Amino acid sequence: MGYQDRDYYRDSYTPQREPMKIIYKIIILNVILWLANAFLTPPQVMKYRDPDTNSIVQVANSGAITETLTLHHSDVYKPWLYWKFITCGFAHDSSNAWHLIGNMLGLFFLGRFVEDRYGSKQFLGFYLAAIVVGNLFWIFCSYMNGTLRPDSDMGLLGASGGVTATVILFAITYPKVTLVLFPIPIPMPAWVFGLLLVGSDMFGAMHGEGLMGNNVAYTVHLSAAAFAAAYYFLNWNFTRLGAFVLGDFKTAMHFKASPRVRYHEDERYDDDDDDLFRSRSQNAVSSSNDPGNYAQREKDARLEAELADEADRILRKISQTGRDSLTRAEERTLQTYSELLQRKKR
Q: Domain extents for the chain?
């Protein structure tokens, strides 16, 4: 019996339009907030007299919307404003459109594949958590530098924490994928690009103005990169956080761990990994005939159980969003599981 013979695949399948990716919603929200700030509450230049020099000083603010979303040093002393640890990740420099464009391009080109690999809710939780972790580390560095004061106007804004974490997670998950940098077309493996990005941020953090960098929060980038590595290698799960933000409170309050796939090979881009995946499922059947190899049979049984769990998850996805919503890796997983069932039947 193949996976097509299962009841919930045969009876529940109704083709539906794939919902919009979370990555697109994040980009749209960032663009809307930037445009709203530019047209509804544009930056204003204010003048005041410096009492020390008795001269007129001009100061330009960032606009009411951006200022409201930005995390300032003084906000740390006001617990009722701690929501800014997330909202500042959706605010960008009103005087520099490239601040917004650069972040959103990185999110668009690489974030889509990360979301496909880990799921929309999981990705949203990961992205928001990366923003908070980066901002907390920025506050810690400010404290260590002695600049964290209640009267300080220094602020932090931008999605670079979440974007950097996304890029690094892509580089770790798909290290062999070739990326081409622009405007200079230099092809390189994703893992090399990840190392260059981290190295550049380390240089920036140690050069110029120390930990705070040169008007760029390099420490946010570095902490977000470390967070992405920890997320991958420690197999963390942020589905419940993402479900809470999306309003799915039933899932958010369900504390049973969701099934997780432990194969982190580059299934989307490397055909060799598909062969490796198939060989594992074949071993799960062939080695079961060897009564003397108990440890190997135990390992193969776990591999087969993980493959079955993943196949069940994909079939539930089909029943909810249709067959067209599957990624290439998910299609291959179903095919591999179907072949495994056929071999066991024989």
A: 68-252, 266-345
The C-alpha R_g of the chain, in whole angstroms, comes to: 24
CA dihedral 322, 255, 132, 64 (to 10 degrees): 70
Tell me the pLDDT of the chain (346 aa) as tens digits: 445 555 444 444 444 566 788 999 999 999 999 999 988 887 765 555 555 565 655 555 678 888 999 999 999 999 999 999 999 999 998 888 888 998 999 899 999 999 988 888 889 999 999 999 999 999 999 888 888 888 888 889 999 999 999 999 999 999 999 988 776 788 999 999 999 999 988 888 887 554 444 567 889 999 999 999 999 998 887 766 555 555 555 655 554 443 343 333 334 334 444 444 444 444 444 444 444 455 566 667 777 777 788 888 888 777 766 676 677 777 888 888 877 777 766 6
Using an 8 Å Cβ cutoff, are 310 and 339 in contact?
no
| pTM score | 0.66
